[in-house]
Design a protein that fits this description.
The structure holds two protein chains of two kinds. By secondary structure, chain A is an alpha+beta fold. Chain A is built from ten helices and eight strands. Chain A folds into two domains: 167 residues, no CATH class; 132 residues, no CATH class. Classes of the chains: A alpha+beta, B mainly alpha. At the A-B interface, helix 5, helix 6 and strand 3 of A face strand 1, helix 2, helix 3, helix 4 and helix 5 of B. Strand 3 of chain A pairs antiparallel with strand 1 of chain B, so a sheet runs across the interface.
Chain lengths: 332, 187
C-alpha cells in the first residue's frame, strides 16, 4: 500500500514538478500566475488596460503550455496532431470573448483557420525569425490543410445558417425531416413551434371573446362578414407573434357550414404555403360550433326580459387536424 | 459559458450533408487521381495529392459562393432552397415549374466552371510545389483558351486530362445522388 502511494506520488510529482525549467509546466504555471495577478489587479484597480494585458499574457502562456504538452505527448486524432487545433481553440475563446462585437459564431468559423495559421507560421520563419519559403512537400501539405480548414469553416457557417433559417421560419420544425439530404433533426425539439397551431388557438380565443354571450342577430351579422373579421384577427395575432419572415406564408380562412339547432359549424383553417416536406403544402384545421342557447337553459336562468333574445354559445374541438394539400373550398 | 448557450436552441444538425459530402469527395478524388495518373504519367502519391487539392478547392469555392449569395436572394427563391435543404424537395409555388430547368442549367454551369477552376488550380499547384506540368507562360495560357481551335496549337494534355477526370467524377457523383434520391423516395 505504501509502495503504491509512493509510486503514485512519484507520477504526480513528475508531472507537477518538472526536472527542468524548460518544460510545459512552467508555461502553464505562468498562465495561472497571470490569471491570479489579473484578478488581483481587477480587485485593486477595477477594469483597465493593465488587467487586460496581464490576462492576455495569461492566455498566451496557457495556450503555448497546452500546445507544448499535447505536442510532447504526441496526441493524435486520425493521424493528425491535435495540438494546433487545441491552441487555435484557446486563442479563439480568448479573442472572441474579449471582442464584444464579434459573435461566438464568428469564433467557430475562425477556429480552423487560426489553427492552420498556428501550423503554418513556423514553416514560414527560420530560427532567426527571418521569412523563408517552406520546402515543396510542406507547401503541398499546407495547401491541403488550409483547404480542409476552409471546408470545416464552411460547414460551421452552414450550421449557423440553418439555425438562422429556423429562427426566420420556426414552423418548419414541426415538419418531417426524414427525406432531407442535408440535415437530421434532434429529438424533442420544436414540435410546439408551429405557428399554425398558435394561430388557431388564439383565433379560438378571439372568436369566443367576440361572440360568446352576445345576442344571436349580432352573431349572424358577424358570420356574414366572417372573412374580414378573420383577416383582422390574423393581423393582430401575427403582429404579436413576432414570427419574423414567415407571417406572410400563413393564411387564416374559415368555412361556414349549417349545423343542427339553427347553429353553424366553422372550419377554421391555417393554410401554410411555404417550405414543406409535403410538396403541395398543408393546412391545419380546427372546427368550432356556434349556436343559440337552447330554450331549456334559457328558462332555467329565468330572465325577466320578455321577448328574450337568444344568446350565442361557442364550442371548439380541442383537436387540430393536419391535412396535406390546399383546401378545396377556400371562400365560404 | 456563452459558448454552450449557443447550442441550446439547436434543433437540426447538418450531419447528413457532411457525411454525403465527405463520401462524394472521396469518390471524386479517387476517380480523378486515377485519370490524372494515367493521362499525365504522374506517380501514385502526387496524383492523389493533386486530385485532393483541386477537388477540395472547388468544394470550398462552391460553399463560399452559396453562403455569400444566399442572403441576397429574394424570399421566393430562398424559401425554395430552404425547402430543398430541409425536406429534400421543392414546394409548390409560382416558381416551382422553372426550378427543375434551373437546377439542370446550374449543374451544367457548375461543370464548366469547376473544369476551368481545376485546370488553373492544377497549373498553379504544380508551379508552387516545384514540379510544373506546363511551362509558366502567361500569354500562351490565355491564348490556349481563346484560340483553342486554331490549327497551329494543340490542347495541352493536362487540360484534356482534367476534362476527362471532371467528366468522370461528375458522372459518378450524379449517379450516386440519383441512387440516393431513388432510395429516399422508396422509403
Amino acid at each position: 500500500m505504501i509502495k503504491l502511494l509512493q509510486i503514485v506520488w512519484g507520477w504526480i510529482s513528475d508531472i507537477v514538478f518538472p526536472k527542468d525549467y524548460y518544460a510545459w509546466q512552467t508555461l502553464i504555471y505562468l498562465g495561472f500566475f497571470s490569471f491570479a495577478m489579473s484578478w488581483v489587479a481587477r480587485l485593486a484597480v477595477g477594469q483597465g488596460l493593465t488587467v487586460n494585458v496581464i490576462a492576455t499574457a495569461g492566455w498566451i502562456f496557457f495556450a503555448l503550455g497546452i500546445g507544448w504538452l499535447l505536442e510532447n505527448a504526441k496526441v493524435r486524432l486520425f493521424g493528425l496532431p491535435v495540438a494546433p487545433w487545441v491552441m487555435g481553440a484557446i486563442v479563439c475563446i480568448y479573442f472572441f470573448g474579449l471582442v464584444q462585437w464579434l459573435t461566438w459564431a464568428n469564433g467557430f468559423m475562425a477556429w480552423p483557420l487560426v489553427s492552420v495559421a498556428i501550423v503554418a507560421i513556423p514553416q514560414f520563419l527560420t530560427w532567426e525569425l527571418r521569412p523563408k519559403l517552406p520546402a515543396p512537400m510542406m507547401r503541398q501539405q499546407l495547401i491541403l490543410l488550409l483547404l480542409i480548414a476552409l471546408l470545416l469553416s464552411n460547414w460551421f457557417q452552414f450550421y449557423f445558417r440553418l439555425q438562422n433559417w429556423l429562427d426566420d421560419y420556426p414552423s418548419l420544425l414541426a415538419d418531417d425531416f426524414s427525406r432531407s439530404g442535408f440535415v437530421v433533426k434532434l429529438p424533442d425539439q420544436g414540435e410546439d413551434q408551429a405557428r399554425g397551431i398558435v394561430l388557431l388557438t388564439r383565433t379560438e380565443i378571439e372568436i369566443k371573446a367576440d361572440l360568446e354571450e352576445t345576442p344571436w342577430p349580432h352573431v349572424e351579422r358577424w358570420l356574414l362578414n366572417m372573412n374580414e373579421h378573420l383577416e383582422s384577427i390574423e393581423d393582430t395575432i401575427m403582429v404579436s407573434l413576432e414570427s419574423s419572415e414567415e407571417g406572410e406564408l400563413w393564411r387564416l380562412t374559415g368555412l361556414r357550414r349549417g349545423a343542427d339547432n339553427n347553429g353553424y359549424a366553422l372550419d377554421l383553417r391555417a393554410i401554410w404555403s411555404g417550405p414543406s416536406s409535403i410538396r403541395e403544402g398543408y393546412y391545419l384545421e380546427k372546427t368550432c360550433t356556434v349556436r343559440p342557447r337552447s330554450p331549456g337553459a334559457r328558462a332555467s336562468e329565468a330572465t325577466l326580459d320578455s321577448p328574450p333574445t337568444p344568446l350565442a354559445v361557442v364550442e371548439c374541438d380541442l383537436e387540430i387536424v393536419k391535412h396535406p394539400g390546399q383546401p378545396t373550398v377556400v371562400e365560404s | 459559458m456563452p459558448v454552450f448557450t449557443l447550442f441550446d436552441q439547436t434543433a437540426v444538425l447538418p450531419l447528413k450533408g457532411i457525411i454525403f459530402q465527405t463520401v462524394l469527395l472521396l469518390v471524386a478524388i479517387v476517380l480523378e487521381a486515377i485519370v490524372l495518373r494515367q493521362r499525365l504519367k504522374l506517380g501514385f502519391q502526387p496524383s492523389i495529392r493533386y486530385a485532393a487539392t483541386i477537388n477540395l478547392l472547388t468544394v470550398v469555392l462552391g460553399w463560399t459562393v452559396f453562403l455569400a449569395i444566399e442572403p441576397l436572394l429574394s424570399n421566393a427563391v430562398r424559401t425554395q432552397i430552404i425547402s430543398y435543404v430541409m425536406f429534400g424537395n421543392f414546394y409548390a409555388s409560382p416558381l416551382s415549374g422553372n426550378l427543375n430547368v434551373a437546377v439542370v442549367i446550374a449543374g451544367l454551369i457548375t461543370f464548366f466552371l469547376t473544369f476551368w477552376v481545376k485546370v488553373i488550380a492544377l497549373e498553379w499547384l504544380t508551379w508552387s510545389v516545384g514540379t510544373p506540368i506546363v511551362q509558366r507562360d502567361a500569354t500562351s495560357n490565355v491564348s490556349r483558351f481563346r484560340y483553342r481551335r486554331s490549327p497551329t496549337q494543340t490542347t495541352s494534355p493536362h487540360v484534356l486530362a482534367v476534362l476527362q477526370a471532371n467528366a468522370l467524377s461528375f458522372s459518378a457523383v450524379l449517379a450516386l445522388l440519383l441512387l440516393r434520391y431513388g432510395l429516399s423516395q422508396r422509403l
